[in-house]
Amino acid sequence: MENKVNTRNVILDLLLDVEKGKMSHVAFNDKINRMMSNGIFLVKQDRAFVTRVFQGTLEKQIELDYIINQFSNIKTSKMKPVIRNVLRMSVYQLKYMDSVPERAVVSEAVKIVQKRKFVHLKGFVNGVLRTIIREMDNIQYPTEYPENLSIEYSVPVWMIELFDEQYGSVKGILDGLNESHETTIRVNTSKASVEDVINFLEYNNVKVRKSDLVDEVLYISNYDTLDSLNIFKAGMVTVQNISSVLVGLIANPQTDDYVVDVCAAPGGKALHIAELLNGTGAVDARDLSESKTKLIKQNIKRLDYKNVKVSEHDAKQLDESIIEKADIVIADLPCSGLGVIANKSDIKNKMTKEQLTDLQSLQREILETVSKYVKKGGKLIYSTCTINKDENEVNARWIEELGLKKQDIDLKQILDVKELPSNIKETDGMIQILPSGNMDGFFVSEFVKE
């Protein structure tokens, strides 16, 4: 007998997990795995609804709070977490999902509030939602910059001001951060050809198109889950954004190189480099915790690479056994993640301006340690998935103080293209990718120890 799943209850659990500190993708995967272990499965339609409302509520959180606060005598910041998130997910459905009946949205919200033991607040929730339904077309939005863009794009004011100060092209960046992405996969050419993968996907009615920049990168949509695709389970493809793929291409490992990836989870860059080594050399993939290294090991097993070893190691702690041993050190370090908001909307709701300074200090502490692993003539690749210049260009210039010489990256030559997309900026030999067209915001720089 099929289990009937209350999808809105699942969405509320996910939103509460994120509010407690979990990253959205971790919360989603953990919840689905727990449900499956209990014999509860979401059919395709239910999974699509949960994904849409969960991610949409996070993506539009600032706007949703703005709307709720106009019609509630209690501001969302003062509400109990259950009530706050029931209202947010309900207003998202009312504003952005015409296919969901208004009556059903209100009714289900009241039921959840009752089920979560907040019976005394069901009238409050009912009243706020019904008022919003009546007034939805009359809501007054800010017209002055930057508040107008903050509400329109659901991005904090401080972040808009940062982008404006550093790039000046705020609207373009915000549009890029709000784009819906196709899933980007990289073909494991040690197991399958690009053509064979495309043929399999098309035969199974998956929409697929090739990247204009990297032959092994494909964009896919119109599928249920990756686990439902045999080519994924067989390790013929892996999920990796093209911006991340560029790190391996820029690193350009040579036969028998020893490569250390100091913050490797979930393993995309380390495993790409293992493939580029054609089974030679060794990739030393490290990360801080068992949960992170477990992700790398799972991907190694699925993709079947033999030249990768995994270990737990705090990148801030010097490992004297590999001082000046590495041909390449990959330092894709913890960062603010401002370049991947399109896929991880909760970042813009959690990150603060003050944290940027703390992150820059952490990055420098790690860089000072791991730069010691580079042998003479070896390379250090410093990258982040952010678009904050203090974490990127400023840090890259600081790396030169460690005695490494910055190398100019000729990305057009590496990719063998005549022109780069307009969102890829070359600044003093460094690569800054602004989010656009399925590309995450990303930064890459390269250094050599002389």
Features:
46% helix, alpha/beta, 4-stranded antiparallel beta sheet, 450 residues, single chain
Write up what this structure looks like.
This protein is of the alpha/beta class and 450 residues long. The chain contains 19 helices and 13 strands. Strands 5, 6, 7, 8, 9, 10, 11, 12 and 13 form a nine-stranded mixed sheet that branches. Strands 2-3-1-4 form a four-stranded antiparallel sheet. Helix 14 (268-276) links the parallel strand 5 and strand 6. Helix 5 (81-96) runs parallel beside helix 7 (122-135). The longest helix has 18 residues, at 353-370. The protein is globular, with a radius of gyration of 23 Å. The N and C termini lie far apart (67 Å).
Report how far the terminal alpha carbons are from each other.
Answer: 67 Å
Strand content: 15-25%
Number of helices: 19
Q: Note the overall shape.
A: globular
What percent of residues adopt helix (DSSP H or I)? 40-55%
DSSP strand count: 13
Low-confidence stretches: none
Radius of gyration: 23 Å
The largest β sheet comes out as: 9 strands, mixed
